[in-house]
Amino acid sequence: MQSYIIAALAAFATSVSAADGVKGAAQGFAKGVTGGGNAAPVYPSTTAELKNYLADSSPRVIVLTKTFDFTGTEGTATESGCAPWGTGSACQVAINKDNWCGNYQPKAPKVNKITYDKAGVLGMTVGSNKSLIGQGSKGVIKGKGVRIVSNAKNIIIQNVRFTDINPEYVWGGDAITVDGADLVWIDHVTTDLIARQHIVLGNKASNRVTISNCDINGATGWSATCDGHHYWGIYLTGSNDLVTLQKNYIHHTSGRSPKVGGNTLLHAVNNYFYANSQHAFEADSGAKILAEGNVFQNVKQAQQAGLPGKMFNGASSPASCKQYLGHACARNTYGSSGALTGTDSSIMNGFGGKNVAAAGTAESAKGVQASAGYGKI
Ligand SMILES: *[C@@H]1O[C@H](CO)[C@@H](O)[C@H](O)[C@H]1NC(C)=O
């Protein structure tokens, strides 16, 4: 009898719900990802417990039922830095990480005292076979991101918000880092008020990744372009990466939305790019980008001009897509925006035999504004 009561109390305290599991399935390159699979859900109650569940070697379904606030958990640091983008109050300031100011910005005005939260600088390590999910709209991680590295495999992050990671200071931390991994699905995640990258796939091979239904919110009081739009959006430069970027709402950014390079094949499909004061796609050397079915509204340049990466605007030859994707490419549409200019169809070979996300029309992509981000599934 007593054990029933204890179980009931425990269930009440952590809001256990039979519905606490991953919803839906990844499309595109990370199709087949299972994360923690059928493992019994665990409900961390402290920041330390959350860190342990993410890092240990057991398959886990980790359910967030509240805000995990890491600010203050590792103390603060006060150091000098620099202001390469201007000294106005709307400009981000850089921490002098690894003497970055001295090495790369020797002419930038120095800033004597920057106080930042140390927990933000490095995210929590995530092991293989994990699902990290929020319950309803309760799953919030404040002041720290996550790192999927060291060949971690089979990971799902769904319905979680990452927020308030030293947004005033460049080098104050990223929200989601993937750098040496495989089969990663980032779905219905919201990122806002981040110091550096909202999502970064670093130079190591991250293999198969799907980023879908996310709300990448760059609105900020501190930006490198000093205009309320965050510059450091999505960064994809892995050495052997297949990335599906599907149905995301990417807005109030000013650059790197996304930046693509290394050896990355990117399928950008049905995203809604809104209110970008500089550029969305930055196709650097090694980029192979197919963009179809996206909407650009108030985006100054949909594609940054003059870069060497390869881009195929699917709309330039829709029927030719079918043999590689199984569907004709959907057109991209623009409102008060610059257009995609790439017409390099040589990248289409890369899609042969891969799992490819379906494409809705560009008109349907506008709807992602309402459905993207955490708290919507
Ligand atoms: C993850 O799960 C797979 C499949 O069950 C297993 O082979 C692998 O060893 C697991 N990885 C870790 C680090 O536990």
From TrEMBL:
InterPro entries: Pec_lyase (IPR002022), Pectin_lyas_fold (IPR012334), Pectin_lyase_fold/virulence (IPR011050), PEL (IPR045032)
Name the record gives this protein: pectin lyase
Residue span(s) of domain Pectate lyase: 94-302
Top-level EC class as recorded in UniProt: lyase
GO molecular function, a single term: pectin lyase activity
Main localization category: secreted
One Pfam family cited in the UniProt record for this chain: Pectate_lyase_4
Family, similarity comment: Belongs to the polysaccharide lyase 1 family.
Keywords (A to Z) from UniProt: Carbohydrate metabolism, Lyase, Polysaccharide degradation, Secreted, Signal
Cellular compartments per GO CC: extracellular region
TM spans (from-to): none
A GO BP entry: polysaccharide catabolic process
Span of the signal peptide: 1-18
Keyword Secreted attributed: yes
Domain of life: Eukaryota
Subcellular location: Secreted
